[in-house]
């Protein structure tokens, strides 16, 4: 396919005199990347697929024994694993929905002529520049029932944000929303400023109300870029580890990645955790595919 | 061009040689990041002064101590010559070939007699009663309790307590008294709470807390030789013990749902709780006025007895093992020979280390050195421990998954919890062909 666009060099050209053809340059760029991908991505991926059918444990010298689908069978029959999946789904929905609402709302507020717009935007972006571990640690302090500022400011007394099994997951999702709404805001802002002004003028002339303008003009035009933000955030939320691991150790906040980490590096069940990682991979790929299909449909409109 | 390559190669070779030459003189001991590791560094500095061989104590936070150690083992890495590893690692590390077999060393130097028997049994021997030893008991440790002497000795409180419960307020000697005192001092309106206990379920904190109740109630986790758990783990004693632990949770400060040694010491230093469970290794900080404003008013007691009079405590502490992949195994043996000498062990205790050396422990000098040494001495002869099998981490995960929702989340009953846990453990043991 490439050869049709990429032709052999004219032997009399200056490029030929330099000695490097386009083809050589192409290979020079592509081969290291391909080699890197194969060594660090494809090879471990296939190798761990092999492990997922064995009872291998990295902590012992015992050779890996082939046990077929037993790991997958055990994992999918484990009530605790299913609980981890439910928790993760709940977390992803709450935190991504929150980020979209807050982030898009902020973008709408900022998408007008206001003084010091640049400074405000930059300040709003600060949370997402912090490290996850740092955010987790200081939100843990903010939530503290004895001296935390949140309970003090909201007058909640000794409300136990992180110790309450029903509340802890939402408390972590709130932190995640605080941290990542600016990301959605940034992308939405880019989308909003690309909406042609004349559409709004035309709507105004036709006496369209603000709701009509929003749902018929703004939203459809921003949707493709918003969908990209949602895909990114969904994938990230699915993988969340540090925030939840640092903030709470409730069974109701044990996300898949935490369970996977414990299985792989505390229990050293290498084979079983490889199988688990594959189940998670298949799910993430499936969810992303659905999104991408939908995104393409949105773009066609 | 060619000369350049040769030059680089020579440089690399030189660096490699000097590095290996330097390494032969150095020993690295790996441990978790806490005060005793600093005390050990002070002790080994004296070894360097005597022999010229420098020893470095390398540390990492507790939360990733196990992960980091086993990652290094699994990679057959020689970064550490010796490791002060947790007692429950013995199975995994010995069966995995990561530890050097010290059985001959034990026989030659009579280590089994020199060290306190419980420490030899739990820190060194695997499998149980096999006569095979993998570590030299280094830091003895067990769970004890600290309490606020000024609250306990307040005449008004004493009178009110006697009125309510019919006996004198003093450091508890039974779990029933512990419960009463926790209830008595639990006053959320005054920002005072009854008791601080372990609840963190990310590794072994919560399980060790529950073990204190189970062992003192006369219960066991199972038969360590036959791997039978049915009827032992879910016995009537253990059900009562678990209920007692859960009841204590209702007298803890707010938000007490992910707590371990740091939080439990804070409960005392911040004046939050009347009593606090913690490892003896963390008590020096409570006697230091710089770290504890209530240092003068802090007292200590051993884990109280259960209803039948049995009195035990959960074991902490570690033994020191030689890593099989070390390049300095002979040097490490020499270090251990030095370490087990009586005067070195005495010095170790003086520096703040909790020696497991029987003669040092029994000496009047040691027992009177601090307000908690007597309680420590008594406790070290009645400690019990968790499973040390290679799959201990899976047993721990199951225990956390079952115990935590019952204690903190108020789900199910103690009997249901322990029945479910027994079933989980049976399944794990069957999977590894132990039953």
From TrEMBL, chain A:
Spans through the membrane: 28-47, 91-110, 122-142, 167-192, 213-232, 275-292
All copies of domain ABC transmembrane type-1, residue ranges: 85-291
Pfam families named in the record: BPD_transp_1 (PF00528)
UniProtKB keywords: Cell membrane, Membrane, Transmembrane, Transmembrane helix, Transport
CDD domains from the UniProt entry: TM_PBP2
Compartments reported by the entry: Cell membrane
Annotated Gene Ontology cellular component terms: plasma membrane
Major location category of this protein: membrane
GO annotation (BP), single: transmembrane transport
Membrane topology: Multi-pass membrane protein
Residues making up the signal peptide according to the UniProt record: none
Family according to the record: Belongs to the binding-protein-dependent transport system permease family.
Name of this protein: ABC transporter permease subunit
Record organism: Oceanomicrobium pacificus
Automatic annotation (TrEMBL), chain B:
Location in or out of the cell: Periplasm
Signal peptide, first to last residue: 1-24
The keyword S-adenosyl-L-methionine belongs to this UniProt entry's keyword annotation: no
Keywords in alphabetical order: Signal, Transport
InterPro entries noted in UniProt: Bact_solute-bd_prot1 (IPR050490), SBP (IPR006059)
GO cellular component: periplasmic space
Annotated Gene3D superfamilies: Periplasmic binding protein-like II
Transport as UniProt keyword: yes
Family, similarity comment: Belongs to the bacterial solute-binding protein 1 family.
Cited PANTHER family: ABC TRANSPORTER PERIPLASMIC-BINDING PROTEIN YCJN-RELATED (PTHR43649:SF34), ARABINOSE-BINDING PROTEIN-RELATED (PTHR43649)
Protein name as annotated: Extracellular solute-binding protein
